[in-house]
Amino acid sequence: MPNVTVKIVGGKDKENLSAVTVGDKRWGENGASWGSSQSVPAGKETSIGAYYSGKRSAVATFDLGNNDVIIEITADGPGETGANIVDV
């Protein structure tokens, strides 16, 4: 399983971003610390979700192969949050 690291790199609403999920793993509130790595099952259409005030907003889906990745989150609010996926 590849290791996935989630980092918040900016955005106009980052103070209201409570959590991010990638597949079945969670960072932020009730999850791992921002900038830490977790093993996520490889697969097609792995989803990224962002949580603002307890409500999930879809960010993106991507094919997670066997390589470790860093996901850079730009927290611009529900429906506007972006993700840049970088192979390590």
Short description:
This protein has 88 residues and is mostly beta strands. The chain is 0% helix and 60% strand.
Calculate Rg over CA atoms. Answer: 12 Å
> What is the approximate shape?
globular
Count of alpha and pi helical runs:
0
The secondary-structure element order is EEEEEEEE
Strand content: over 45%
* Helix fraction by DSSP (H/I, runs of at least 4): under 10%
Calculate the terminal CA-CA distance, rounded to whole Å. Answer: 14 Å
Strand order of the largest sheet: 4-1-7-8
The major pleated sheet works out as:
4 strands, mixed
How many beta-strand segments?
Answer: 8
**Oligomeric nature of the chains:** single chain
Q: Regions with pLDDT < 50 over 5+ consecutive residues?
A: none
Q: Mean of residue pLDDT? A: 96
Structural class assignment: mainly beta
Describe the overall structure:
By secondary structure, the chain is mainly β. Helices cover 0% and strands 60% of the residues. The relative contact order is 0.32.
Helix-strand blueprint:
Layout: E1 3-10, E2 17-22, E3 25-28, E4 37-39, E5 43-52, E6 55-64, E7 69-74, E8 82-87
Parallel strand pairs: 1-7
Antiparallel strand pairs: 1-4, 2-3, 2-5, 5-6, 7-8
Q: Characteristics of this structure?
A:
88 residues; four-stranded antiparallel beta sheet; 8 strands; 60% strand; mainly beta; four-stranded mixed beta sheet
